[in-house]
From TrEMBL:
InterPro entries: AP2/ERF_dom, AP2/ERF_dom_sf, AP2/ERF_TF_ERF_subfamily, DNA-bd_dom_sf. This is AP2/ERF domain-containing protein. Its main location: nucleus. Coiled coil: none annotated. One of its GO terms (molecular function) is DNA binding. It comes from the Eukaryota. It is found in: Nucleus. GO terms for biological process: defense response. The lineage of its organism: Eukaryota, Viridiplantae, Streptophyta, Embryophyta, Tracheophyta.
Amino acid sequence: MRVETNTATTSKCSSYRGVRRRSWGRYVSEIRLPGKKTRIWLGSFGTPEMAARAYDSAAFFLKGDSANLNFPELAGSLPRPESCSRKDIQVAAAKASKRACDDKKGSDESESEKRLQWWFEKEMDDIVEEVIKEKEAPYHLRSGKRFNKMRSLIKQL
């Protein structure tokens, strides 16, 4: 794990690769596709560790063993995307960040941990809605009970 050393830089950036801090305190993560100028948005997170794990998941999938990871000791346990699509990479990153949140949980659930859980559920809803908007799901999955069932299944991941 990396340690922040300069207080002047901690207000706007993080010491983790692929992670930066917004002015209002949230941490965001994105990764550049190898050999291209385009990026994949991985999400907005409550802690820098969650954002770093999301980055690690995407980096390990895209770059393999040559990836520079924030937590190299966790490389074997990172969730893998089902395909090379942006959405699958984002879902795997969200799972990795949730694991960071779950690993952090102790015997009692604090208020900040409840907020992190709320954020994860909201982020998963956003991903599902984006998939639906882009019509990657068949019509019967975009409406009614089946949509709600799909959303609840994704929340359980």
